[in-house]
Each structure stands twice: as structure tokens, then as C-alpha cells.
Amino acid sequence: MKENSPVFIIGPSRSGTSLLYRILQKHSVFRPENCPAGVDLTESKVFIAPGAVFDKRRTHGLGAYAYMLFNDSMFNEFLSKLHWTVRWQKMLGTSVLPGEYNYFTRRLMDYRATRIMFWKFYQGPTMVRGFFELAMKARGVERVLEKTPQHLHRIPEIRHTYPDCRLIGIIRHPIDTFTSYRRRYEVEHDRGVSDDQLAWLEITPEQFCAGFKIEESIVRRENARHDGSFMSIRYEDFTNDPQETLKQILFFLGERYEEQCVVGDETDKAYWDVDPYLFADIRRKTKDWREYINQEEAEHIEATLKQSMERLGYERYT
After folding, report:
1. What is the domain count for the chain?
2. Rounded distance, CA 161 to CA 168, Å?
3. What is the pTM assigned to this prediction?
């Protein structure tokens, strides 16, 4: 059952998905026993960028190879088992789909049935199920736990691949979310990260609001399904009362509560020194938004997202 009901953490970027990912990995069922650091925050991106699943570049924290903890034996077995799927998808990527898979699916975003047909034609379910089957062995886990925020936009493909999966959508006050973009940009810019790598963080208030509206509507739609496969939580509820919120999450997942998930963390930060907040103790507030955005920007964001904030139960900061 657990092999067929993996857990996917999704949500807007900078909303606390990594925090929940880290906490759940301390649970005995999700703990990556084969990870020397004791926790691994890699985003596999298997649904949002399936064309890159077979890429063997050694990039920490990103991609299928990293999610397998760079286990050459398991990754090579994956490539061998999926030989014809690999050839089929590469052929589609070079001769049929300009810009690969996402170029096409962006034009089908509002056509769920057509997206599923294309996902099956692409042999996506075969590829993803084969990948996670071996990734479980590579990571040494009893049940798959994966976090890629952008998979929020691939829920139809996820559900088709794993009808019994569990999805956790985490969302956060928009001002704190936008502030997190600004803080992360400053941190990475000071580290000398290239402009190309910083592009995703250079988001304007207008761009942020447009994306937040879409993502909030997706969360609201999934909540309305009432099929027991989707749970939405607010970042603030989790940080204000982590024990109780975690109990609710684990009950939703069908797992027992384990106290060690929310006690102090001594994890080796080897791969994650770029963002120390990811390994800090759970705190209600990690930063003051006024240090990163001005009053005018904050007022604009809250005015634009007034309805979304009301639906989520958020009060204005301005």
C-alpha cells in the first residue's frame, strides 16, 4: 500500500515546503536511512521536468539523480529497466516536442483530460513509477516522500500516476512569502551566484500576485474534492503549534505520531548552508518583512490579494 501511496508536498515557492519536508523525514517511515546527513531536501522535479529525469549530472538538491542520492547502481538499473521509455521520450523531445515536455503542457494547462492523454502518450506514468520504485531502495525508505513546490501545477498527472497518493499543500501569508523571495535573493547574490541562477528570485510584486492567485485557486479546488487525498495547511498553523499540526498530518497520511519529528535538530547542513533557516528550530517568525520590502509594495500585494487572503484567513500587515 505504501509503495502505491507516496506523499507529495506541494505549494507556492518560499511557503515552507522545505520545513515540512525536513520534519517529516525525521519520521521512521520517511527517514532516508542511506543518506549520510540524515535528511535530504532534494526536489526530484519528475512531474514538472520529466525530460530531465535521465540526466546524470551531479547537482546537489536538484533532480532525479540527486534524489537517488547519486546511487549509480540504482540509477543505472532505472535506465536499464526503462530503456525503451528513455528512447521514446528522447525521440519525442528532439523531433516532436520543441522545448521538450513543458513547452507543450503549458498550452494544455486548463485541459485536464487532454493533459492526461498526453501524459500517457509520453509514457510518464511508467517512467515515474519505475523511478520511485528504485529511488525507495536508493534512499532506504519505507514510503516515498517527495517535495517539489511546482508540482502544484501537475496534480492531474500525479493523481493519474498514483491514484492512492497523498498530497499536502502548504501555503503562507503572501507578505511573508514575498519577503522570503527577497531575503533568499540577497543571500544568494552575496554568495556570488550568477544572474541566470538568480532569475527565479527576481520576481516583481505584480508577478508574485498573479502567481499567488493561481496557486491559491488550485489549493481551493483540491480542497473541494473531498476525496481524502489532499490536505492543505497554513505555514503559520504549523509553526504556531507544530505538535498538533503534525499529528493531524500523520493521521491524514495513516502514520503514527513520533515525538522526534518536532524536537531540536542536529542535522549536518553539508548541502544546505545557502539557507540556514531550513535547519533552524521551528519558529513563528523568521524575519521582519519591513527589512526586505517597503510599505508601498506590501500595500499593493495585500490590496491585490485581498480576496485570496480572506479565503485563507489572513489579516493584513499594512
Report:
1. 2
2. 16
3. 0.88
**Cβ neighbours around 86 below 10 Å, total:** 17
Query: What is the rounded CA–CA span in Å between residue 70 and residue 61?
Result: 11
For residue range 75-117, list pLDDT tens digits in order. Answer: 999 999 988 888 887 777 654 554 455 655 655 566 778 888 8
Task: For residue 190, give the amino acid letter.
Answer: D
Asked whether residue 163 falls in the same domain as residue 182, the answer is yes
Q: Which residue has the higher pLDDT, 276 or 106?
A: 106
What CA–CA distance (Å, rounded) separates 131 from 13?
A: 24
Burial of 58 (0-12, 13-18, 19+ CB in 10 A): exposed
Q: Would you state the cell numbers that stand for residue 292, as one nine-digit string? A: 526586505
Continuous segment of H or E residues that includes residue 208: helix 205-223
Cα separation, 133 vs 219, in Å, equals 28
Could you tell me the three cell numbers for 261?
519529528
- Residues in a beta bridge with 230: 167
| DSSP helix/strand/coil, 299 | helix
The three grid cell numbers given for residue 284, joined into one nine-digit string: 513563528
Listed residues 140, 167, 186: the one ending a domain? 140
Confirm if 143 and 25 have CB atoms less than 8 A apart.
Answer: no
Give the angle 155-161-164 at the CA atoms, nearest 5°: 85
Domain that holds residue 175: 1-31+143-266+280-318
